[in-house]
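It would be a great kindness if you could assist me with a short task in structural biology. The matter concerns a single protein, recorded as an amino acid sequence and a row of backbone structure tokens. Kindly check, if you would, that the fold set down in the tokens agrees with what the sequence suggests. Thank you for your consideration; the sequence and its tokens are set out here:
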Amino acid sequence: MVATEVRSFKLTPPQSKIFLSKKKNKIVNAGRRFGKTWFSGAAIMDKCINNDRKVVIYVAPTLVMARNLMWNTWIKKHIPDEYIAHKNEQYMVMTFKNGSEFYCLSAEHPDRLRGLAADLLIVDECAMIDNDFYDVVKPVIADKHHDGEQLLISTPKGYNWFYDLFCKAKENPLHWDTFEYTTLDGGNVLPEVIEEDRKTMSPKMFAQEYLASFESVENRIYYAYDRTLNSFEFDDSWQYGDIHVGMDFNVNPMTAAIALWSRGSLYFFDEIVEKGSNTQEMCQMIKKKYPGLTVFVYPDPTGNKQQTNAAIGVTDIKILRDNGFIVCTPPRPYPSKDKWNSVNTAMLNAKGEHHVFVAHNKCPQLKKAWEGYSFKENETPDKSSGLDHISDAAAYLITYKLPAFINKIRKPTVLGV
């Protein structure tokens, strides 16, 4: 019997750190050409060849990418024939002599994943895959016979499900390992090449593709928000006292950002984002969650207008007051730029002080909005993302309590001729 050649595959220090992680759930946000395919291939080979009767599934955004990135470029090139019992080129399925199986699939055909169970699931370039895909793929590692591992890896592409999951994973270190690396960290691209590419790319594109940044600071509306610096630990030791609620009147969704006020700062610890709701239903939800507490509400100043299809004289603000809430609102809407400036200053002022905080394991929609709500090229807010509602709700509260930039209402002046 001819001895099989022993092959070794060298990993870079960042790749080694991911490979050696003992967590079953790993998520990697990495710059372009970090070496995602090489690392994924090595992980596939290790699991299939060095372990008996294991099932490994690799998923790429498209069938073409699955074949070109993994099947043709890595699997067929680096896995020795001596270990293979059967190989199906058309469906990209491989069975090993030790009973292990490998499936190279695409997110274009999620039905092929139904009924499969994996000991290791690798989803490559997650940010390029549709938002609802992860709901389909999660059961693959939850089978009772396979207590599977998952490796989710991608270069970012805006604020989609990959961003949401990465943020949730960072806040759940007990069950997840999170990794962030730039292209330079990967060690596969020379610094001078990266600098040359910088000249031909926009700052936003360069930040996304090479720095693995989910956003570009230059167009963020709430640029002063920092997920780490504007964070606090919320637990049972906090005494509720009075509840302060910023509220945006919008049927789809109705939103409320809920905070505590202490020593000149706001501490957001809860949020309500309810589709197809209304002001009365929002009031009932708040009273049910916080019975017996004094509730101050800071609503959209336009709430003094009569509600559509409501009785004469019934406004959103009247509904709030009828429910026993203390309503705090200016007589007219805040100028948008002043509102944004007030929020940014409250988050971080020129002295380096922070007066707005959000619980690190709460309010995912508010955090997403503060990080993702941005200006379009014509310097108008991009409301197509839907991030304006919950951020506006918080802004009404912050601006009222910490009005750094709101102009004082001036009385009209009559000038003589």
User: Anything to note?
Assistant: Residues 52 and 98 are 5 Å apart (CA to CA).
